[in-house]
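Lab notebook, design round three. We kept the backbone fixed and only want residue identities now. Task for the bench partner: fill in a sequence for the structure below.
Input structure tokens:
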């Protein structure tokens, strides 16, 4: 699983229901990211990943 920062809890936690997505970057380049939920409060969490 991937660790991300929860803004509501103000702590790093493991994402629940994590899935890899693609988002738009500069110059039309696709960027990789992980999107999931905080297991404690249920807030959406997001983390940008590095190049493949």
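Proposed sequence:
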């Amino acid at each position: 699983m991937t660790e991300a920062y929860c803004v509501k809890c103000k702590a790093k936690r493991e994402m629940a229901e994590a899935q890899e997505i693609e988002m738009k970057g500069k110059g039309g380049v696709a960027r990789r990211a992980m999107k999931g939920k905080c297991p404690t409060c249920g807030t959406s969490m997001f983390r940008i990943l590095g190049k493949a």
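Keep this in mind before ordering anything: Residues 3-48 form one domain.
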